[in-house]
Design a protein that fits this description.
This protein has seven helices and four strands; from the N terminus they run H-E-E-E-E-H-H-H-H-H-H. By secondary structure, the protein is α+β, with helices and mostly antiparallel strands. It has a domain of 110 residues: Ubiquitin Conjugating Enzyme (Roll), CATH 3.10.110. Strands 1-2-3-4 form a four-stranded antiparallel β-sheet, with helices on one face. About 12% of the residues have low confidence.
Length: 188
């Protein structure tokens, strides 16, 4: 069987296994998220697994970059990812998404033993400071709104009714004028 056939079979299996499970989310046919732990559990975390084109012969991409994980320190995230990567190497060549999610569920306490909630404000400010240089020039241009003069505002208000809407037919073409212009060219 080719990689695509394996992926299709695993996709069907995942959909049937996790049907109705609120912790599981299919982001796309090759990308999945699973919340390990209950909602409101301070030691809960989210794992995202994305398949490459040649998965399961090559390892999937495992990520913990979801906003849900902002309270988890990067050391704990790296530790969890390293342990999951070890499991990937053991199962390489076989369908492993379900196995990885179950492995994470079974070892949640061990994975999160060194977890001390990080204040999300620091995480968010770190993310913002990292992303700011890329978005700063474009955001300044978007913030600037076009300013209308008093005369322009008055003219706009005169055209609209009390609700600020333009009257029906304000942009209609005068049919007689239009036909007289186009008709005279046809007569020549």
């Amino acid at each position: 069987m080719g990689a695509n056939e394996d992926q299709e079979m695993e996709l069907e299996a995942l959909r049937s296994i996790y049907e109705g499970d609120e912790s599981f989310r299919e982001l796309s046919p090759v990308s999945f998220q699973y919340r390990i732990g209950e909602n409101g559990d301070p030691k809960a975390f989210l794992i995202e697994i994305s398949w490459t084109e040649t998965y399961p012969q090559t390892p999937p991409i495992i990520s913990m970059n979801a906003f849900f994980n902002n309270t988890i320190s990067s050391d704990v995230k790296q530790s969890i990812l390293a342990k999951l990567q070890e499991a990937v190497e053991v199962h390489l060549g076989t369908a492993m998404t379900y196995t990885l999610f179950e492995y994470a569920k079974d070892n949640k306490e061990q994975f999160m033993e060194n977890h001390h909630p990080v204040h999300s404000a620091t995480s968010i400010s770190n993310i913002i400071s990292v992303e700011t240089p890329n978005t700063a020039p474009s955001s300044k241009k978007k913030d600037k709104k076009e300013q209308l003069s008093k005369a322009q505002k008055r003219k706009l208000a005169d055209k609209t009714d009390h609700k600020g809407e333009l009257p029906r037919g304000w942009n209609w073409v005068d049919v007689v004028k239009h036909l007289s212009k186009t008709g005279s060219k046809d007569d020549e």
